[in-house]
Write a structure and sequence with these properties.
Blueprint (H helix, E strand, L loop, with lengths): L1 H15 L10 H4 L5 H13 L5 H17 L3 H9 L1 H10 L10 H17 L3 H8 L4 H17 L20 H11 L32 H9 L10 H14 L8 H9 L9 H4 L9 H8 L2
Helix pairs in contact: 1-13, 3-5, 3-10, 4-5, 5-6, 5-7, 7-9, 8-9
Bound molecules: iron/sulfur cluster.
Iron/sulfur cluster binds next to helix 11 and helix 14.
Length: 297
């Protein structure tokens, strides 16, 4: 059964794990830059703002990156906007910016905290691997707790909504996604937190430490593929489905994430049997809806 599932996931991967489809994803912004320091900055802001609808995400991130561009590019702009004077300039530039719950004060908080890390470490990735080398989860929790505490004093009332820790129980989709982008390395993910990256002065993370970024659509797909029976999207479900994928691809448990996400983002799965759509779907032979459909005849 596992080998059958892997076969069809690989078919779906071949169809959707393609750079031509990056423009349907916030990772698209990272690929607009070639300097790895800029790429990390863009990945951080794009991932944390990846909630709400795709159109709104694209608009909010584009406006932010335009301002960064006007001040020398993302990496340089972080240092410029972190000073008291720079913060005022940034607020003037971003007066009308709003991303659902978050306002420019929350971006200022992120900029100040990120700049502080960059003063002391080569990069955010370098900071994360320096905290607890053996466990990504410990590094992650330490980082998020620290930034939430400090960010409250700088940002608006919803600053903490930008950051989540697995140890608090939520599914933490955005940060799982950031780690996937920065730790996996192929034509989609940039792998800048892996050993040997110019962003790191020490050993990096490995793809086998990653967790699946779980949103409602990927969660539903995992249910349809029989990878979980849980109904609630939380960290327990993230762990369960990541383990299920780890059985299929032990060194790279989030290998199928980008290709699975395309089914939702490109509106190619309606989470119900639709013969016209489902007959085109590579996952149809292993989808639970297929079984239900067969029994109804
Ligand atoms: S077979 Fe249909 S319902 Fe199942 S995953 Fe594919 S598109 Fe979605």
């Amino acid at each position: 059964m596992a080998s059958q599932l892997k076969y069809y996931l690989d078919q779906n991967y071949k169809r959707f794990h393609r750079p031509e489809l990056l423009d349907s994803d916030p990772l698209f912004f990272v690929h607009q830059y070639s300097n790895p320091f800029d790429q990390e900055a863009v990945a951080l802001f794009s991932a944390l703002l990846s909630y709400g609808n795709v159109k709104q995400i694209k608009k909010s991130v584009s406006l932010l990156l335009n301002v960064f561009e006007d001040f020398g590019g993302p990496h340089r702009a972080i240092f410029q906007f972190a000073s008291k004077k720079g913060q005022k300039t940034f607020l003037n530039e971003m007066t009308h910016w709003k991303h659902r719950l978050n306002d420019p004060r929350d971006l200022i908080a992120l900029i100040v905290l990120y700049a502080d890390v960059l003063e002391r470490y080569q990069s955010l990735g370098d900071y994360l691997v320096s905290i607890h080398r053996s466990s990504l989860l410990e590094s992650w929790h330490f980082w998020v707790t620290d930034w939430k505490k400090k960010g409250k004093k700088i940002g608006g009332p919803y600053f903490s909504h930008l950051l989540s820790s697995p140890l608090d129980g939520s599914a933490c989709k955005r940060l799982c996604m950031l780690f996937r982008w920065m730790v996996r390395k192929d034509k989609i993910d940039v792998g800048l937190w892996q050993t040997g990256s110019p962003l790191l002065t020490q050993q990096g993370f490995s793809p086998n430490q990653l967790f699946l970024p779980l949103d409602t659509h990927v969660g539903s797909l995992c249910q349809l593929l029989g990878l979980t029976q849980k109904k609630t999207l939380n960290w327990k479900m993230t762990e369960e489905v990541t383990e299920a994928f780890r059985v299929l691809t032990p060194k790279d448990p989030v290998r199928y994430d980008f290709s699975l996400c395309r089914l939702g983002i490109l509106d190619l799965c309606q989470k119900r049997w639709n013969v016209e759509i489902c007959e085109q779907c590579q996952l149809q032979p292993v989808c639970l809806f297929r079984e239900v459909e067969k029994k109804s005849f």
